[in-house]
Design brief:
Largest sheet of chain A: none
Radius of gyration of chain A: 22 Å
Radius of gyration of chain C: 19 Å
Distance between the termini of chain C: 40 Å
Order of helices and strands of chain A: HHHHHHHHHHH
Number of domains of chain A: 1
CATH topology of chain C: Rossmann fold
Helix content of chain A: over 70%
Number of helices of chain A: 11
Number of domains of chain C: 1
Largest sheet of chain C: 6 strands, mixed
Shape of chain C: globular
CATH topology of chain A: MetI-like fold
CATH superfamily of chain A: MetI-like
CATH class of chain C: Alpha Beta
Number of helices of chain C: 10
CATH architecture of chain C: 3-Layer(aba) Sandwich
Strand content of chain A: under 5%
Oligomer: heterotrimer
Strand content of chain C: 25-35%
Strand order of the largest sheet of chain C: 6-7-8-3-9-10
Structural class of chain C: alpha/beta
CATH class of chain A: Mainly Alpha
Chains: A mainly alpha (281), B alpha/beta (250), C alpha/beta (264)
Chain lengths: 281, 250, 264
C-alpha cells in the first residue's frame, strides 16, 4: 500500500533536516580544516601584558592567563577536537564492523572468543583505561585517542555481529551463496550494504559522545598537552579561575556544546532517514 | 540403470541448542531423484521438508547420512561446488532478492561468478527474463518495485541461469495468489521439461503436488512415512497420516 | 429473503488511504446466522472492508463515501466510546496470526480475563467457569491446561483456535474473520473451519470470512462475494458462484485452484 500523504510530508521534512544538519556539520569540519587561516590572532602568541582580559571588540572571547586570544585558540582547538574525534569514530566503526561481520559469519570458537574480549572491553571503565595507557605510553592526544579506540569498538562489533547473524539466515543470502559467491563477495556486496544502516546511525550519534570523552580526557590532563589548543585542556588550564574569569572557561565550553549539538542533531536526522523502524511513522 | 541426479541416504540433521537435547529435524531420510524426474516432498510445517532442501543444496551441513549428486558424494562439499548442479527457488519471492540490488543483478550473479563478462551476463539475463515471461527492462527494477508473481518469475530465471540439473522448489508457489500460482506452476513445468531438469518440489498443497509431480514423498516429523507414484499416494494412501492429510483438504 | 434480519449492511462503501482509493462502491449485507465469504487476490481490498467496519483502517484510512450500518447505526459515524462498546461485544474480529496478538509473558487465561472484564463485571472464578464451558463446547479439550499455558507453549493451530474461541467470549452477534486459516497447515485449517461452523451452529453468530482459500469458502460460506481491485466482481449463493461462475474473473479464479484427482 502506498504511504498516505501525511507520512510522505513527514518524511520529506526529515530529509530537509538531514540536509540542514549535514550542511552545519560540514561547515564545522571545514572550519576546523581551515582554522589556521580563520583565526584573527596567532593562537600561541603570548602577551603577558594583556593576560586575562574580559571580552572586548578586539578579543571577543577575552584572553587567557598568558594573554593568548581565546577566540583564536577556540578556532584552532577545533582541529584537535574534531579531527581526532572523526578519526577515532572512523577507526572504531570500521574495525568493530569488520570484526562483528567476521564473528557473525564464522560463528563457532573464534566468535565466542572475540565476543568475550569485547565483553571485557565493555566492562572496563574508560577513564581507568586511559589512565593506564597514559601511564604506559605517556599522555598526549594520540594516546588518548588510542585508549578510547581500544575500548569503544565492541559496540560496533556487537551491532555488526547481530545484524550479520540476521542477514545470513535470509533467503537472499542463501540465493547469493547458491549463485557461487565467494565469502569476500558475500560480505562486501550482500551483507555489508544490508547491515550498514544501523552502524552508520550509531557512528554519527557517537561523534558527539566521543568528542565529549576526548575533551574530558584532555580536561583531566590525559589528552592534549599544553600549549596545544584543545577545548578540553583549555578548560582545564583555567578551571581554578572559574569565579574570577568565567569567560575563559565559557569560550571552549560553548565550542564543545555547539559542536556536539550539531553532530547529535545530524545523528538523529540520519537515524530517522535510515532506521527501518522509524520508517512510516 | 543410470545414476540418479540426486541420491540421499539416511540423511540426518539435528539442531542442537547448547544445554538442551538436539531436535532431529531430518531423521534418517533416503530417496532418489532420477534425471528429468519431478519428486514432490509433502507434509505439514515442521516436518523437515525445507531442511532436506537446504541440506541437498549444501546450505546446511547434515549431522549424518550421505548426499550424492550425479553419483558424486557431496555430503561435505561447499555450496560453491554444487551450485552449478543444484539451484533453488524460495517461498517468499521478495525476500529471496537482496533489497539493495536490482533483479538483473541478482539473476546475473551466478553468471558473473562463473566468469562471464558484464556484457555477456547482461545479454544472458535479458534472454532469461524473456524465458520466464518478463520484459527485459525488469532487470533494472528493485524487488520491492514488482509484484510477488513477477518477482518469483525473476527468482526462477535466477535459478535456471547457470543451467542446473536439479531444481529445488521450496514452497515456491505457496505465497502467491491462486491465479498467479497457476501461472507460475505452468511456467515451472514448461521450463523443467524444456531444459530437462529434475525437480524436488516441496509443497504442503497435496492437490498442487499431485498435479505437478511424478512421485510423492510424504514427510512427518523428519521421516518419510510414505512414498510412491503421485496418483497412487493420493488415490490409495497406505498410511493413516497421509489419509488424515487428504481428509483435511477442504 | 424477507423476514431475515440484516445485521450488517455495506451500502455503496468506498474506502481510501489519503487520496488513494482502495475499495470502490461495495454493497452487500450480512444476515443473522449467515456465513458470508469474501474472496479475491491479495490487494483486492477484502481485508480493508473488515477493518472499515471495526474502525481499524489505520493512519490516513477512511470510509470516503457510502454507509456501513450495523443494526441501523452507521459505524463510521460512531464516537470512539460507542465503538469501544460495540467492538468485541457485538462485532468481534479475528486475524491471520492470533498467536502474535497475545502477550508472550502472560498466560492465555490471564489475558482473556483482562479482555472480558473490560466489558463485563465478573469474578475470576465465574470467568474460568464460563470460559471452560465455552472451550469445551467448541471441542477444545483440556481447557484448564490451555488457560494456564503461555502462548508459546501452544501450537500455532491451537493458538488460532483459542483466538477464535476468545472472540466468542462476549457472545458477539457478528464475527469478522480476516484470513483466519491462511497461516495454518491443512489439518489445523480443517479444525479451525470446523470450529467456526460450530460457532454458527451453537451461538447463531453471523460470520464474514475473508480468505483467498476457495476450499475454506466452499466448506463454510452460504453466500460469496468475489472482489477484484477494490470492486465486487460477482456475488451470490456460494454454490452458484463457486460452481457456476458467470464472470470471467471468477471463472479464472476457480480454474486456477488445484484440484485433487481422487480417482475411484
Amino acid at each position: 500500500m502506498t504511504a498516505p500523504e501525511s507520512m510522505t510530508r513527514k518524511r520529506s521534512g526529515g530529509r530537509t533536516r538531514l540536509f540542514l544538519f549535514g550542511a552545519a556539520a560540514l561547515l564545522v569540519v571545514a572550519g576546523a580544516f581551515f582554522s589556521e587561516s580563520l583565526c584573527p590572532y596567532d593562537p600561541y602568541l603570548q602577551n603577558l601584558g594583556a593576560a586575562l582580559e574580559p571580552p572586548t571588540a578586539a578579543h571577543i572571547f577575552g584572553t587567557d592567563r598568558y594573554g593568548r586570544d581565546l577566540c583564536s585558540r577556540v578556532i584552532v582547538g577545533s582541529r584537535a577536537s574534531i579531527f581526532s574525534t572523526l578519526a577515532l569514530v572512523a577507526v572504531i566503526t570500521s574495525f568493530g564492523t569488520a570484526l562483528g561481520l567476521f564473528c557473525g559469519w564464522a560463528r563457532g570458537r573464534a566468535d565466542t572468543f572475540l565476543m568475550r574480549v569485547s565483553d571485557l572491553c565493555l566492562a572496563f571503565p574508560c577513564l581507568v583505561f586511559a589512565l593506564a595507557v597514559a601511564g604506559v605510553l605517556g599522555g598526549g592526544l594520540h594516546n588518548a585517542v588510542l585508549a578510547l579506540a581500544a575500548i569503544s569498538w565492541p559496540k560496533y562489533a556487537r551491532i555488526a555481529r547481530s545484524q550479520t547473524l540476521a542477514v545470513r539466515e535470509t533467503d537472499y543470502l542463501k540465493a547469493a551463496r547458491l549463485a557461487g559467491c565467494s565469502a569476500a563477495r558475500l560480505a562486501v556486496r550482500h551483507i555489508l550494504p544490508n547491515i550498514a544502516g544501523p552502524i552508520l546511525v550509531t557512528a554519527v550519534l557517537d561523534i558527539g559522545t566521543m568528542m565529549m570523552e576526548l575533551a574530558g580526557l584532555s580536561f583531566l590532563g590525559l589528552g592534549a598537552k599544553p600549549p596545544m589548543a584543545e577545548w578540553g585542556s583549555m578548560m582545564s588550564e583555567v578551571r581554578g579561575l572559574l569565579q574570577t574569569v568565567p569567560w575563559a572557561v565559557f569560550a571552549p565550553g560553548l565550542a564543545i556544546f555547539a559542536a556536539v549539538l550539531v553532530f547529535n542533531l545530524l545523528g538523529d536526522a540520519v537515524r530517522d532517514e535510515l532506521d527501518p523502524k522509524m520508517k512510516g511513522r | 540403470m543410470t545414476t540418479p541426479i540426486l541420491r540421499v541416504q539416511e540423511l540426518k540433521k539435528i539442531f542442537s541448542r547448547s544445554g538442551r537435547e538436539g531436535f532431529a529435524a531430518v531423521d534418517g531420510v533416503s530417496f532418489d531423484v532420477g534425471g528429468g524426474e519431478c519428486v514432490g516432498l509433502i507434509g505439514e510445517s515442521g516436518s523437515g521438508k525445507s531442511t532436506v532442501a537446504n541440506l541437498v543444496a549444501r546450505l546446511l551441513d547434515p549431522t549424518g547420512g550421505r548426499i550424492y549428486l550425479e553419483g558424486n558424494d557431496v555430503t561435505a562439499a561447499d555450496v560453491r561446488a554444487v551450485c552449478r548442479t543444484v539451484q533453488m527457488v524460495f517461498q517468499s519471492p521478495r525476500e529471496s532478492f537482496d533489497p539493495r540490488r536490482t533483479l538483473g543483478d541478482g539473476v546475473g550473479e551466478s553468471l558473473r561468478n562463473a566468469g562471464q563478462s558484464a556484457a555477456e551476463a547482461r545479454a544472458a539475463v535479458a534472454e532469461l527474463f524473456e524465458a520466464v515471461g518478463l520484459s527485459p527492462d525488469f532487470a533494472s527494477r528493485y524487488p520491492h518495485e514488482v509484484s510477488g508473481g513477477q518477482c518469483q518469475r525473476a527468482a526462477i530465471a535466477r535459478a535456471i541461469a547457470i543451467g542446473p540439473k536439479l531444481l529445488i522448489c521450496d514452497e515456491a508457489t505457496s505465497a502467491l495468489d491462486v491465479t498467479v500460482q497457476a501461472d507460475i506452476v505452468a511456467l515451472l513445468s514448461r521450463l523443467i521439461r524444456a531444459r530437462a531438469m529434475a525437480c524436488l518440489f516441496i509443497c504442503h498443497d497435496l492437490a498442487l503436488a499431485q498435479g505437478f509431480c511424478d512421485r510423492l514423498l510424504v514427510m512427518r516429523e523428519g521421516k518419510i512415512v510414505e512414498a510412491g507414484a503421485a496418483d497412487e499416494v493420493i488415490q490409495s494412501p497406505k498410511t493413516e497420516y497421509t489419509k488424515m492429510l487428504l481428509d483435511s483438504i477442504l | 429473503m424477507n423476514g431475515v434480519e440484516e445485521l450488517l449492511r455495506y451500502d455503496r462503501v468506498s474506502v481510501g488511504y489519503g487520496s488513494i482509493p482502495v475499495v470502490h462502491d461495495v454493497s452487500f449485507a450480512l444476515r443473522a446466522g449467515e456465513i458470508l465469504g469474501i474472496v479475491g487476490a491479495s490487494g483486492s481490498g477484502k481485508s480493508t472492508l473488515l477493518k472499515a467496519a471495526m474502525g481499524l483502517l489505520g493512519p490516513g484510512g477512511a470510509v470516503s463515501s457510502g454507509e456501513l450500518r450495523y443494526k441501523g447505526q452507521n459505524l463510521p459515524d460512531l464516537s470512539e466510546e460507542e465503538m469501544r462498546r460495540i467492538s468485541g461485544a457485538e462485532l468481534a474480529m479475528i486475524f491471520q496470526d492470533t498467536g502474535a496478538s497475545f502477550c508472550p509473558i502472560r498466560t492465555v487465561g490471564a489475558q482473556l480475563y483482562e479482555a472480558v472484564s473490560a466489558h463485563e463485571a465478573l469474578s475470576e472464578a465465574e470467568f474460568r467457569e464460563t470460559t471452560t464451558a465455552l472451550l469445551q463446547k467448541l471441542r477444545l479439550d483440556d481447557a484448564a491446561r490451555i488457560l494456564e499455558s503461555y502462548p508459546f507453549e501452544l501450537s500455532g493451530g491451537m493458538m488460532q483456535r483459542v483466538g477464535i474461541a476468545a472472540a466468542m467470549l462476549l457472545n458477539p452477534s457478528v464475527l469478522l474473520a480476516d484470513e483466519p486459516t491462511s497461516a495454518l497447515d491443512v489439518s489445523a485449517q480443517k479444525r479451525a473451519v470446523e470450529e467456526m461452523l460450530l460457532i454458527r451452529e451453537l451461538c447463531h453468530t453471523a460470520i464474514i470470512i475473508v480468505t483467498h482459500n476457495i476450499g475454506v469458502v466452499r466448506r463454510m460460506a452460504d453466500r460469496v462475494v468475489v472482489m477484484k481491485e477494490g470492486r465486487v466482481v460477482e456475488s451470490g449463493d456460494a454454490l452458484d458462484v463457486l460452481e457456476r461462475p458467470t464472470q470471467a474473473y471468477t471463472k479464472k479464479l476457480m480454474a486456477a485452484v488445484p484440484k485433487l484427482r481422487r480417482g475411484a
